[in-house]
Design goal:
Elements lengths: L3 E4 L5 H8 L3 E4 L8 H8 L4 E4 L6 H5 L6 E4 L9 H7 L2 E3 L6 H16 L2 H9 L20 E5 L3 H14 L2 E5 L5 H7 L2 E2 L2 H7 L2 E4 L13 H6 L5 E4 L8 H9 L5 E4 L19 E3 L8 H19 L11
Parallel strand pairs: 1-2, 1-3, 3-4, 4-5, 6-7, 6-9, 7-8, 9-10, 10-11, 11-12
The structure holds (2R)-2,3-dihydroxypropanoic acid.
């Protein structure tokens, strides 16, 4: 009998066909009130789970006694309770590397959009408020030749550094758990303490994974250390930042502006104070969201699930 894989997001039909060569596939294009009851029924006999965002916790795992592998279609895996998975001998995988350039492009997009106030200017033109040659009120700030501080110099951080170094002549500071010699040699990136990075950077770009150690790592104290002209960019996870402290820092002028792809609660509540601020540019967690990259991520997750259920070591096995 073929092992059973539940795919709980919409993926390209080629991805499903690939898994179907060796596994039975049950596909839920979305999980919502209508589909959850059947999803929970299917969990009981599932061997593999593939998708992103679902909380893989004790309650869910209790419903899946036959599960052997959980494959995220994302590089982040903060949705998984790794201790529970380890205790049950269930493998877990993610999709690193294939998204690095796409996320770095997105981060440069939001850096430029925030610095040059592009969404605000777009609205101004479309609302018919462009009445005369623009005055200082509409000026932005330069990106090129400024200092970019990258917190989390992994694959995505390095791809951001590459763009900053070669494309924008920026000085690059970084803070990471360990030194990244490749980034130092190739992009002239300088390793420094978190506090030094916060004090010296014009752009602070947070790219670290969410772990117990990084939760709320940027809060009141850290915003206080940043330049008043600093622009804060978050492309990691909402929970790495104390959102109330961010609102306060933006309101009081502790920092100049913020560009945010991630929020503590996603989708963000429409009445969230950040959404009323002119100096905040927002995106709905779209770092890796291009057709090409989402296909590669889904195919990589499929490769992981197939390998894991066929007795091989999945290429992106997460080490507990
Ligand atoms: C990831 O892969 O973790 C990204 O946040 C998805 O865009």
């Amino acid at each position: 009998m073929k092992p059973k894989v539940i795919v709980y997001k919409k993926v390209d039909s080629k991805v499903l066909e690939f898994i179907e060569q060796t596994c039975e596939v049950i596909n839920f294009e979305t999980l919502d009130a209508k589909t959850y009851p059947k999803f929970y029924d299917e969990l009981e006999t599932a061997h593999g789970l593939l998708g992103s965002g679902l909380k893989i916790n004790k309650e869910l795992l209790d419903l899946a006694p036959n599960l052997k592998i959980v494959c995220n279609t994302s590089v982040g895996y903060d949705n998984m309770n790794l201790e529970e998975l380890a205790a049950r001998g269930i493998m877990a995988t993610n999709t690193p590397d294939v998204l690095n350039d796409t996320v770095a492009d997105t981060m440069f997009g939001i850096i430029l959009a925030t610095a040059r106030r592009i969404p605000e200017m777009d609205q101004l033109v479309k609302n018919g408020q462009w009445k005369s040659m623009i005055s200082e009120d509409f000026y932005g700030v330069d990106v090129h030749h400024k200092t970019l501080g990258i917190i989390g110099m992994g694959g995505v951080g390095s791809a951001i550094a590459k763009r900053a170094h070669y494309g924008f002549d920026m000085k690059i500071l970084y803070h990471n758990r360990s030194r990244n010699e490749e980034a130092e040699n190739n992009y002239d990136a300088t390793f420094c303490s978190l506090d030094e990075l916060l004090q010296q950077s014009d752009y602070v770009c947070l790219m670290t994974p969410l772990t117990p150690a990084t939760e709320k790592m940027i809060g009141k104290r850290e915003f206080g250390l940043m330049k008043k002209s600093a622009i804060f960019i978050n492309g990691s996870r909402g929970k790495t930042v104390d959102e109330e402290a961010l609102v306060e820092a933006l309101k009081t002028g502790e920092i100049l502006a913020a560009g945010l792809d991630v929020f503590v609660q996603e989708p963000v509540q429409p009445d969230h104070p950040l959404l009323t601020m002119k100096n905040v540019v927002t995106m709905p967690h779209i770092g890796s969201a291009t057709y090409e990259t989402r296909y590669k991520m889904a195919m990589l997750a499929a490769t992981n699930v197939v390998a894991g259920l066929n007795g091989e070591t999945p290429p992106n096995l997460i080490k507990f």
